[in-house]
Amino acid sequence: LSSLPLQILLYVNGVYYIFYFLATLAMIIYKSQVFSYPDDLLAPDLTVLFLMAILEVPRSYLGFKGNLTEAEGPLGLSLGLTVGSVVLCVYLLLWQTYVLWADVLLNAVLLAGYGLESGLKVTAIAAFVS
């Protein structure tokens, strides 16, 4: 009952997230050097990015584990962590101090991946329960 499309998407999202993290970190450093980035607003943006990276590890692990073992518990926890990651992604998309077009593009692709992944997780959980 394991979902091959979900497993592939979990892998692709994991690889993309590494690129996303490095690109977003580089853009925050770039914006802090080029623009007049207020010091009190730099810390929250970096904190959100690093918190998102910390959430990504258990989110991906639980997704892989839940899908491969056909267990709805870890998959449900992964789905819950995905909601947290989406909230942090929306923060970086809408409420970050400076939002560049590259930020919009990177966050849009990540949100699309999270959306597809969530749909497949719900489908897999429904298959595991029945």
From TrEMBL:
Keywords from the UniProt entry: Cell projection, Membrane, Transmembrane, Transmembrane helix
Record flagged with keyword RNA-binding: no
Transmembrane segments: 6-30, 74-94, 106-129
Example of a GO biological process term: non-motile cilium assembly
Keyword Membrane included in the entry's annotation: yes
Main subcellular location of this protein, as a coarse class: other
Protein location: Cell projection, Cilium; Membrane
Pfam families: Transmemb_17
A GO-annotated cellular component: membrane
Top-level taxon of origin: Eukaryota
Membrane-topology annotation of the record: Multi-pass membrane protein
Protein name, as recorded: TMM80 protein
The encoding gene: Tmem80
